[in-house]
């Protein structure tokens, strides 16, 4: 069994429990259901966009504890002030130390920044959870879902006016895309082995539909990485650990974007 299988099995149990505690109807009472979303697709294509999507993540299966003292409102607000194009908030508690409250807090602190709910989505119920806690977009990991499941989850997202980011890591997974997908993310990290290779982005990027907004995810740590991927046609760059492993992730992000703009 791979770590991804393990995470997904745990997620199925969590979702079954959550459904017993909070019904879909109850989730719909959240005031966040009434807000209009901030489009990541739009901010990534805007003139002068940094393209940086900064992630809030305190631990991970590949690195263990990354940051013990970070505070989500402080970090996410600093990310926005630094000029990010979007923010990614981990909501998986078991493996990534995340929480729904982190998402809701980041939302309230950053009313105009696009925010991704980063989790392992397997059930339409989770799309409602994302909406109820203030997300603008959801992540669908192609390695975990069939083409049919991806379509069903994409349809639910569209019903709730959420954007859909699909993560791919292999050529075969590109076949699972559908017309409701807003953004494709190429994960440089193999979720089965944790190995990171930027060439994954370059190779799969060339196989994606030309007009598809695309981002490169994981293992990015230098301005050179970003320039390289920009030349390969990428519009966005998802960075977590590089900022979160520092004492002041917001400041690290600010300095990075300043360097990028030089
Ligand atoms: O911390 P990094 O190497 O900069 O990576 C960020 C992000 O890409 C990574 O956290 C990630 C990519 N896809 C995921 C799917 C689930 C959880 C986490 C992820």
From TrEMBL:
Family of the protein in this entry: Belongs to the TrpC family.
Domain Indole-3-glycerol phosphate synthase span(s) in chain numbering: 4-255
UniProt catalytic activity: 1-(2-carboxyphenylamino)-1-deoxy-D-ribulose 5-phosphate + H(+) = (1S,2R)-1-C-(indol-3-yl)glycerol 3-phosphate + CO2 + H2O
EC number annotated for this UniProt entry: 4.1.1.48
GO biological process: L-tryptophan biosynthetic process
Family annotation (InterPro entries): Aldolase_TIM, Indole-3-glycerol_P_synth, Indole-3-glycerol_P_synth_dom, RibuloseP-bd_barrel
Upper lineage: Bacteria, Pseudomonadati, Bacteroidota, Bacteroidia, Marinilabiliales
Keyword Amino-acid biosynthesis annotated: yes
NCBIfam families for this protein: PRK00278.2-4
Protein name: Indole-3-glycerol phosphate synthase
Organism domain of life: Bacteria
Matching HAMAP family: IGPS_B
Keyword Amino-acid biosynthesis: yes
Listed GO MF terms: indole-3-glycerol-phosphate synthase activity; phosphoribosylanthranilate isomerase activity
Xref: CDD domains: IGPS
Pathway(s) annotated for this protein in UniProt: Amino-acid biosynthesis; L-tryptophan biosynthesis; L-tryptophan from chorismate: step 4/5
Keywords assigned by UniProt, alphabetized: Amino-acid biosynthesis, Aromatic amino acid biosynthesis, Decarboxylase, Lyase, Tryptophan biosynthesis
């Amino acid at each position: 069994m791979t770590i991804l299988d393990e995470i997904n099995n745990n997620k199925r149990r969590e979702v079954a429990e959550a459904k017993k505690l909070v019904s879909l109807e109850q989730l719909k009472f959240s005031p966040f259901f009434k807000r209009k979303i901030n489009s990541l697709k739009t901010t990534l294509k805007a003139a002068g966009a940094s393209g940086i999507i900064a992630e809030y993540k305190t631990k991970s299966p590949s690195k263990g504890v990354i940051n013990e003292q970070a505070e989500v409102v402080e970090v996410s607000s600093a990310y926005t002030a630094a000029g990010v194009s979007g923010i990614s908030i981990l909501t998986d508690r078991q493996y990534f130390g995340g929480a729904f409250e982190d998402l809701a807090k980041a939302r309230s602190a950053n009313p105009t920044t696009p925010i991704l709910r980063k989790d392992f989505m397997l059930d339409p119920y989770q799309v409602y959870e994302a909406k109820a806690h203030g997300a603008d977009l959801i992540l669908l990991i192609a390695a975990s879902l069939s083409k049919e499941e991806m379509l069903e989850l994409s349809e639910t997202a569209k019903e709730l006016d959420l954007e859909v980011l699909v993560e791919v890591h292999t050529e075969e997974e590109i076949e699972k895309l559908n017309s409701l997908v807003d953004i494709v993310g190429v994960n440089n990290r193999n979720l089965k082995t944790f190995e990171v290779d930027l060439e994954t982005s370059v190779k799969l990027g060339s196989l994606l539909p030309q007009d598809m907004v695309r981002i490169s995810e994981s293992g990015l740590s230098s301005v050179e990485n970003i320039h390289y991927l920009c030349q390969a046609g990428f519009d966005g760059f998802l960075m977590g650990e590089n900022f979160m492993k520092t004492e002041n992730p917001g400041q690290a992000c600010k300095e990075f974007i300043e360097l990028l703009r030089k």
